[in-house]
């Protein structure tokens, strides 16, 4: 699946855990795919879970890989790699502490390690008039650097260093039109500390803007990239709403033809495809249009709705913040703080109430309580990356497949053993001998087919055709009769149709390893799914 535009935000949170609910709502409201968050104050033992997102923070439906960068002691950075217009692009979130000494080589080493195409954003703590700062102090982005080149009134040492690094390597900077840092001290002025440094093709449109949302002394910066990115394929569903079973059964009864020929393998194959397509059409026509889940703004808002009074508070807080930024009056700031604290309380209460309703509506008889328990206790281990012999990561699907193919061809080889010629001759003689005559398989009946369908588990997951157990259990008599005809033809010709015979090979990773070493013993799981087993 492709996404036509990618939305990125840059925000200095100054402590992320206390802004969790506010940030999650912001990401949903603005349809954010990637969020650069600096000053998170997170630790190794403190987990942050946002439904639909994972840290850097990345939308879970966006295809990405963790990108390795050269370790830095004077700055903090994390990066991922995505595909933009089918070209690899590295996205990096950077934070430069104002208390650390950073030299030109530190910035150059960081940006060079990101590759030819990258977008690095963060709190550079660097000031330079080029990116809009009022004064020039030690950094730019919250790269904690100031320099007149990015719009500062004066230039700081770190701003000069960052600007020189960008100029020497022909990189570009992208800054918002307004300040991103709003100090609480009355003697300090708002400034631009959060911005982007990038190296991209010149024909790629970019749009940047300030957003007066979220609670911190920094306001978010939104970057929109007009390029196509890859998304993880969405799980498909044949139906997503209640079905009119009367219409479903009538459609199947009217369109089922019992007089079709089933005398050759081609006839069986065509009849099976037609039968599956008929059930799929009946299900679609008997229900409302299917809206598959995707991380668009409307769909996620439907999944995580906010009550009206919270939406009103969000608008009031946004207006109050804009007014305070314009006037700077202490009374306007007090009004903004009151609305901000009230919004946080309301979001926290709404979250708790939502969870209480979810728990109270769990039914122990239909498996919902067990599924909720399993979801809470489930610990998902990250899939280790596949590496080349030189320890570099493999990100391309074709190269991964080739590496696995070479590994499996090396591992699964016939045993080199010395055989007895006389014994081998007896084995081949037995294998080449004709099979003994056996009785033909007993034909199945419509009642037998109905019996097995009736005893299928309702919660059983559908196959590739997306036909669920309830759809099979609601089949009228005529399609069941046709199904028994097909099964008897399959048994008579000893031919299994391709639409009902699929296999999937899944590599089982050694999760305990940090990275997949192909020399480690592996196991292969071959899963075959058959419609007919009797």
TrEMBL record:
Family matches, as PANTHER family: DOMAIN-CONTAINING PROTEIN, PUTATIVE-RELATED, ENDONUCLEASE_EXONUCLEASE_PHOSPHATASE DOMAIN-CONTAINING PROTEIN
InterPro entries, A to Z: Endo/exonu/phosph_ase_sf, Endo/exonuclease/phosphatase
GO molecular function term, any single one: exonuclease activity
Taxonomic superkingdom: Eukaryota
Domain Endonuclease/exonuclease/phosphatase: 140-221
Keyword terms of this UniProt record: Endonuclease, Exonuclease, Hydrolase, Nuclease
The protein's name: Endonuclease/exonuclease/phosphatase
């Amino acid at each position: 699946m492709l996404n036509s535009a990618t939305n990125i935000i840059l925000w200095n949170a100054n402590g992320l855990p206390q802004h969790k609910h506010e940030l999650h709502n912001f990401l949903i409201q603005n349809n954010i795919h990637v969020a650069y968050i600096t000053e998170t104050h997170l630790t190794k033992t403190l987990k942050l879970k946002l439904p639909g997102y994972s840290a850097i923070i990345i939308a879970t439906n966006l295809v990405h890989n963790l990108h390795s960068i050269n370790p830095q002691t004077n700055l903090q950075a994390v990066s991922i790699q995505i595909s933009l217009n089918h070209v690899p692009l590295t996205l990096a979130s950077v934070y430069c502490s104002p208390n650390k000494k950073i030299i030109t080589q530190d910035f150059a080493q960081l940006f060079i390690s990101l590759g030819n195409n990258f977008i690095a954003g963060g709190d550079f703590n660097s000031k330079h008039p080029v990116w809009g700062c009022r004064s020039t102090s030690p950094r730019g982005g919250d790269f904690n650097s100031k320099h007149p080149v990015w719009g500062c009134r004066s230039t700081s040492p770190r701003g000069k260093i960052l600007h020189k690094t960008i100029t020497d390597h022909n990189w570009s900077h992208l800054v918002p039109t307004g300040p991103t840092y709003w100090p609480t001290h009355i003697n300090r002025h708002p400034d631009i500390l959060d911005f982007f440094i990038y190296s991209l093709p010149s024909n790629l449109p970019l749009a940047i803007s300030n957003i007066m949302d979220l609670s911190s002394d920094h306001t978010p910066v939104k970057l929109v990239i007009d390029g196509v990115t890859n998304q993880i394929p969405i799980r498909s569903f044949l139906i997503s709403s209640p079905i009119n079973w009367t219409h479903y059964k009538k459609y199947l009864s009217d369109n089922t033809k019992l007089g079709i020929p089933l005398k050759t393998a081609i006839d069986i194959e065509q009849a099976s495809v037609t039968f599956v397509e008929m059930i799929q059409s009946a299900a679609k026509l008997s229900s409302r249009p299917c809206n598959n889940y995707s991380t668009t703004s409307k769909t996620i808002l439907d999944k995580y709705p906010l009550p009206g009074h919270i939406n009103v508070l969000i608008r009031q807080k946004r207006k109050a913040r804009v007014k305070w930024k314009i006037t700077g009056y202490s009374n306007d700031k007090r009004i903004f703080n009151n609305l901000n604290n009230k919004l946080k309380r309301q979001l926290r209460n709404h979250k708790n109430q939502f969870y209480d309703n979810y728990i109270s509506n769990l039914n122990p008889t239909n498996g919902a309580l067990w599924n909720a328990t399993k979801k809470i206790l489930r610990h998902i281990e990250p899939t280790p990356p596949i590496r080349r012999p030189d320890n570099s990561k493999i990100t391309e699907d074709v190269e991964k497949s080739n590496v696995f193919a070479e590994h499996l061809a090396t591992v699964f080889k016939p045993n080199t053993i010395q055989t007895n010629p006389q014994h081998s001759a007896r084995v081949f003689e037995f294998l080449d001998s004709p099979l003994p005559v056996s009785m033909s398989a007993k034909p199945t009946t419509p009642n037998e087919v109905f019996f097995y369908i009736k005893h299928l588990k309702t919660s059983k997951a559908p196959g590739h055709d997306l036909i669920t157990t309830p759809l099979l259990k609601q089949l009228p008599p005529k399609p069941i009769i046709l199904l028994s005809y097909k099964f008897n033809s399959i048994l008579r010709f000893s031919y299994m149709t391709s639409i009902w015979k699929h296999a999937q090979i899944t590599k089982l990773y050694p999760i305990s390893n940090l990275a997949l070493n192909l020399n480690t013993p592996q196991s292969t799981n071959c899963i075959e799914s058959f419609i007919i087993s009797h």
